[in-house]
Design brief:
Bound molecules: zinc ion
Number of helices: 4
Structural class: mainly alpha
CATH superfamily: Fe(II) trafficking protein YggX
CATH class: Mainly Alpha
Strand content: 5-15%
Mean pLDDT: 94
Radius of gyration: 12 Å
Low-confidence stretches: none
CATH architecture: Orthogonal Bundle
Distance between the termini: 25 Å
Strand order of the largest sheet: 1-2
Number of strands: 2
CATH topology: YggX-like
Order of helices and strands: EEHHHH
Largest sheet: 2 strands, antiparallel
Length: 78
């Protein structure tokens, strides 16, 4: 298991063993975010998706989540 120094919790933790999403965004998350913090975001994003009625299959709508995700994970703009 690879380790990361997590941008969100600032601890050394286990890296994701898969790309959580396609492209550079997924690579950045994988290289900067630990598994527990990613799982927190997954839970948070479910609430946001329900609350805002975001259709995640639609790339245009999915984009609305990226700035919120960047802030939540303390990553640069995604
Ligand atoms: Zn973390």
């Amino acid at each position: 298991m690879a380790e990361v120094t997590c941008a969100r919790c600032e601890k050394v933790g286990t890296a994701l063993d898969h790309l959580p999403m396609a492209g550079a965004r997924g690579a950045l998350v994988r290289s900067r975010i630990c598994v527990p913090c990613w799982e927190l975001w997954v839970e948070e994003s479910k609430l946001l998706i329900n609350h805002h009625g975001i259709e995640v299959a639609d790339p245009q709508q999915r984009k609305r989540l990226y700035p919120i995700m960047a802030e939540f994970l303390k990553l640069p703009e995604l």
